[in-house]
Specification:
Layout: H1 3-23, H2 37-40, H3 53-64, H4 86-98, H5 109-125, E1 139-143, H6 146-159, E2 169-174, H7 180-187, E3 192-196, H8 206-218, E4 222-229, H9 241-251, E5 254-258, E6 283-286, H10 288-291, E7 299-303, H11 306-313, H12 323-327, H13 346-381, E8 385-387, E9 395-400, H14 404-416, E10 425-427, E11 430-436, H15 444-457
Parallel strand pairs: 2-3, 2-4, 4-5, 5-6
Antiparallel strand pairs: 1-7, 6-7, 8-9, 9-11, 10-11
């Protein structure tokens, strides 16, 4: 494909994406596809001869779209948002066009230095500890997901006890925490995971954590890691970070904070009371690709001190040695996570922050929280509905007072609209509805549409 042909087809593809966004609101969110439907439209063997790009692009409509879930629909209230914006898409396009490999500073100085600088910006924008900047002892790095960040933190915690038997090591987290903590412990070969019970706000009980650690020490086990959550997946509960951090310091545990979803809200000062105690954390992660207009994958991982991270991750074969690295004056991000290779993820985040500005991003988050609080008031005023958790951010969690069958009917009514979609969960064995407000295009009228379905079924 020549540059002129690329220019022609690229413009057509941009038009196709813009048309998709212009019509996504009217599309059914869940595709009418059965297992194997999409694959059945593909030829059994790869083509021997190349095809015109126009024919390939046409198959976006013929083959791809019948199997696409409309994650960008303004009626998407399931899981958590995975929002996208045009500046982020353009940043991703530029990164793909440049084709950088940022494993070392030397292999792409711009990839490394823009990433370091943008993540230092975010420390300021989110009121996080200044030591987390790359100009201090810590620093930030972009990972694929919060799961990767958490797995990395667990590996670092294990490495600090590298002379001990991992089968005797223990990881602690809330019973409401994301499954990635358990998975990360398994991947790291940690022998034990303790799920600590929670209070009536679904936050970890610090007293139960302390008791669990004391019991494990008495059993000659080795506590190595504790994860506190700022915004649990089920209900966006916030663990008592200060109390957890103090316990971690007392017993020498690595203290990691998972703020994958709710971390984006820290760009607004009124939510920063949830950060109380975060200065005690050894590491912290949040996902701009959930609620900060930057498409997947873009997960920030900060450490308070980068030396233990680099000590756990650095291996330097001869072919990676170079003068810049040996000087100690640069960051080589390959030493900050498991993969060697890394792409220019920071470009899209840089584009987003510059396009919207801090105030634009704050307004975006605040509007979603306002919509969530409006929906919360409607739920509280309805005689047949009850909240199952406080609305702290953009998630509203509620159930029908008549029990699981009635709650299931509410879920079914919402999803039957085809243009609003939720996924339920359970708490203490009881079904509840999760309405996660955070898609790029969601406005009051979309929340009113989902409320109409709820009210009709309740």
């Amino acid at each position: 494909m020549s540059p002129d042909e690329f220019r022609q087809h690229g413009k057509a593809l941009i038009d196709w994406i813009a048309d998709y966004w212009a019509t996504v609101e009217s599309r059914p969110i869940i595709p009418d596809a059965a297992p194997g439907d999409i694959r059945s439209r593909l030829p059994t063997a790869a083509p021997e001869e190349g095809e015109p790009f126009g024919s390939i692009a046409a198959d976006l409509d013929r083959i791809v779209m019948p199997g696409v879930t409309q994650w960008q629909s303004p009626g998407w209230f399931a899981y958590f948002p995975a929002n996208v914006s045009f500046p982020a898409i353009l940043g991703e396009l530029a990164a793909a066009g440049l084709g950088q490999q940022g494993m070392l500073w030397q292999t792409s100085p711009a990839t490394t230095e823009i990433e370091s600088h943008v993540l230092d910006w975010l420390v300021d924008l989110m009121g996080l500890p200044m030591d987390w900047k790359t100009t201090g002892p810590g620093g930030g790095v972009l990972q694929m997901s919060a799961s990767d960040s958490t797995h990395t933190a667990i590996v670092v915690a294990r490495h600090r006890h590298r002379d001990a038997d991992p089968s005797r090591m223990v990881v602690y987290t809330s019973a409401q925490a994301h499954s990635s903590i358990e998975k990360g412990a398994n991947v790291a070969g940690i022998g034990h995971v303790r799920l600590i019970d929670t209070d009536d706000r679904m936050a970890m009980r610090a007293s139960s954590l302390s008791a669990a650690i004391e019991a494990d020490l008495a059993a000659d086990l080795i506590p190595v890691f504790v994860c506190g959550t700022l915004g649990t997946t089920g209900t966006t509960a916030v663990d008592p970070l200060a109390a957890i951090g103090e316990i971690a310091r007392r017993h020498g545990l690595w203290f990691h904070v998972d703020a994958a979803y709710a971390g984006s809200a820290m760009i607004c000062e009124e939510f920063r009371h949830h950060l109380h105690g975060v200065e005690l954390a050894d590491s912290y992660t949040f996902n701009p690709h959930k609620w900060l207009l930057t498409n997947f994958d873009c997960s920030v991982f900060w450490v308070a001190d980068r030396d233990p991270l680099i000590d756990a991750m650095a291996i330097v074969p001869p072919y990676l040695r170079n003068a810049a690295s040996e000087s100690g004056e640069v960051i080589d991000y390959r030493d900050w996570h498991v993969p060697l290779g890394r792409r220019f993820r920071a470009l899209k985040l840089w584009f987003v922050i510059r396009h919207y500005g801090a105030e634009g991003l704050r307004s975006y988050v605040r509007e979603h929280v306002r919509l969530a609080l409006d929906l919360t008031e409607r739920v509280e005023a309805h005689p047949s509905l009850r909240l199952v958790a406080p609305t702290l951010f953009g998630l509203v969690s509620f159930a029908h007072t008549d029990g699981d069958e009635a709650t299931g009917r509410v879920v079914d009514a919402i999803n039957a609209t085809r243009t609003s979609y939720v996924v339920p969960s359970t708490l203490a064995g009881r079904l509840f509805v999760r309405v996660a407000i955070g898609s790029t295009l969601t406005e009051l009228r979309h929340v009113e549409a989902v409320w109409s379905a709820i009210e009709g079924a309740a």
